[in-house]
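Thread: "does anyone have the structure for this chain?"

Original post by V.I.:
We have the sequence but no experimental structure in hand. Need at least a predicted one for the grant figures.
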Amino acid sequence: MEISKKCLSCDSALFEDHFFKLENMPAGAQEFDNPSKVDLEVRQCSHCELVQLTNEPVHSYKDVIRAVGFSDEMKKFREEQFGNFIKENSLYEKRVLEVGCGDGEYLRVMRDAGAETYGLENNPMLARKSRARGLSVYQGYITDKNSRVINHPFDAFFTMNFLEHAPNPKQLLEGIRNNLKEGGVGIVEVPNFDMMAATGHFSEFIGDHLSYFTKSSLTFLLDASGFEVLECSSIWHDYIISATVAKRDKEESSRLAGFTKNKIDFELFEKKKNKDLSSLDKYIRGYEDNSVAVYGAGHQSLALIALSGIGPRLKYIVDDAPFKQGRKSPASNVPIVSANTLREDPAKAIVVIGASYSDEIVDKLTKSGYNNLNIAVLRQEGLKIYK
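Reply from O.Q.:
Generated one for you, tokens below.
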């Protein structure tokens, strides 16, 4: 098989004739008000199996922009997770670093669980916002294994849905490792490509995410970066892979020779794409133009709207993140509004595209008294019509 191009993780060649393309996609999940479109090319490494984009990284790849604060369910989940992490690793009042901390929402939970917390965030505005909330946050980014963070070495670290943005994930992890004490531990979380591959979940591809990790390819990278993987499992409705790791005495990998590779079936993504886009188009065509809304301006929703071409027929997109409201969706140019607009300027129907938050959104809509609003949800198994 002829192969070319280099892997972001292990620098091996990518399969040349085994790939998946998505055309006319948003330039990025945070490219609001930007009507330009890009084509994404998805390929797989011939050695470590990592699935990845061959596109250039988005300009904001060093920044962490989390769209919404904690839902009650997520907050409870993180409180339990971080509490157990501190207890099991004797980290009470020990120094814990979050790499890519955004405005500090996870950092606060870790602090409240009993750790002495520090954060690293590249975006100056978010770093200032975190410090204004009483958190110890430094502005910066770990570029390679020689990067040092103020107050290093740390007893532990965590990085949440950040690694997949990096054009050099191994260098980032090596840099984190070298800011830890001997025996330091950590949590590394990324979106779950095992779930994507099993379901053909094509709308998870977005220009912001360069790497798409399975448990196997994440373990490979962590091992190659000088970590022992203590546990690696899927969490949060199967959307996230969470790995607990410990710094190894030696940087050299201990297990790469026995690695088993799996080739991804990209045809499943194509079939799922055709099915979902068709059902979404058919549902919206059942109503007059500009009478149907979408709930959710996350990357899955933005991808689906752009790929399907339904933007001109939508009334608006509802999203709970204030920084998105008043702007227009990337590529499709649809107004983004708050949920209050559903009362002020009602839609006849709404399609919920909220990934792991879909059930919470449906519950909110049904309890808010929108009696004349028809609700449909685009789930992994397809479009489900509620009323």
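V.I.: this helps a lot. Residues 266-285 form the longest helix (20 residues).
O.Q.: and The mean pLDDT is 93.
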